[in-house]
Design brief:
The chain has helices at 28-31, 47-65, 90-103, 133-150, 157-167, 178-185, 199-202, 217-236; strands spanning 6-10, 20-24, 38-42, 69-73, 108-112, 125-128, 169-171, 174-176, 195-197. The protein is an alpha/beta fold and 237 residues long. InterPro entries: AB_hydrolase_fold (IPR029058).
C-alpha cells in the first residue's frame, strides 16, 4: 500500500531558510523521474481553510491509494507558516503556489472556493465552488457588522471596506493588510480550461459552512472519483 501524506518542508518565497510546511505524498527528489500525476491542492481562504483541512487530508489519502501524488501547502501566514499573516497579499500567495507547483512538479491543481484566486493559472485541473474575492469579502464584512451591532455599535460596510483598502482590517479573526483587502476587491478565478465542480453535481454539502472542522468522507470520495475519471480520460486521449 502507498504511504499517506506527511508533513515536509519546502522553500517557499518569503520564508526563512527553513522554508514552509506542506502536507505531501509527493517526494520532490523523485517527482522529476515519475510520470504519475501530482495534484497541487490549494485550500480555501481564511476560516474556510480551517474547516476543510480534515476533508482535504482525506482526499490526499484516497489519491495516494489510487497511485496519484498530491501536495497541500500552507499559504504563507496560515497554518504552521513562519510568515506574518498581516504582511500577505494575493500576489504573495500566488507566488507561493507557483513555487510549490514547481518544487513538487505538480501536473494538476485542485482548488476549493477562494483557493481558485491564488492557484497557478496554467495548471489544468478542478475548481470546487470557485468564488470571487468580492464574495469572500462581502461574507466576512457582513459577519463583522452583525457582530458589531450585537454590541450596540452601528457599522457601515462600505466605510469599513474603504478603511480596509487604506489601512487594513481585522476580519474573522485575521488581521488583513491593505494590500490583501485591495487585491480581494476585484479578484476573480484566473484558471482557464479547468473543470468547475459544484457541490450539487457531487451530491454533497459544504464542509466550509460547518461550525467546527470535521472530516467529509463522502465529499472526499466524490472528488477523488472525479479526478480519477478525468485523469483516465486524459491518458486515453
Amino acid at each position: 500500500m502507498p504511504e499517506g501524506p506527511a508533513s515536509v518542508r519546502w522553500p517557499c518565497p518569503g520564508a526563512a531558510t527553513e522554508g514552509e510546511w506542506a502536507l505531501s505524498s509527493a517526494d520532490p527528489a523523485h517527482r522529476r523521474h515519475k510520470s504519475t500525476p501530482c495534484v497541487l491542492i490549494v485550500p480555501p481562504l481564511f476560516d474556510e481553510m480551517n474547516r476543510t483541512r480534515h476533508m482535504l487530508a482525506g482526499v490526499m489519502r484516497l489519491l495516494a491509494q489510487a497511485g496519484i501524488d498530491s501536495v497541500l501547502p500552507d499559504l504563507p501566514g496560515c497554518g504552521e507558516s513562519v510568515q506574518d499573516f498581516s504582511a500577505q497579499s494575493l500576489n504573495a500567495w500566488r507566488a507561493a503556489m507557483e513555487a510549490a507547483a514547481r518544487h513538487f512538479a505538480a501536473s494538476h491543481v485542485l482548488t476549493l472556493r477562494g483557493g481558485a484566486l491564488v492557484a497557478p493559472p496554467a495548471l489544468p485541473g478542478w475548481e470546487l465552488e470557485p468564488c470571487s474575492g468580492h464574495a469572500l469579502l462581502r461574507t466576512m464584512l457582513r459577519a463583522h457588522t452583525f457582530a458589531q451591532r450585537a454590541t450596540g455599535r452601528r457599522v457601515d460596510s462600505a466605510a469599513l471596506l474603504e478603511q480596509g483598502r487604506e489601512t487594513g482590517l481585522e476580519l474573522a479573526g485575521y488581521r488583513c493588510g491593505a494590500a490583501l483587502i485591495a487585491g480581494l476587491c476585484g479578484a476573480e478565478p484566473a484558471g482557464e480550461g479547468r473543470r468547475v465542480l459544484s457541490l450539487s453535481d457531487l451530491g454533497q454539502s459544504a464542509p466550509w459552512l460547518r461550525a467546527e472542522p470535521a472530516p467529509a468522507p463522502a465529499l472526499a470520495q466524490a472528488l477523488v472519483a472525479t479526478i480519477r475519471a478525468d485523469l483516465a480520460r486524459e491518458d486515453a486521449a
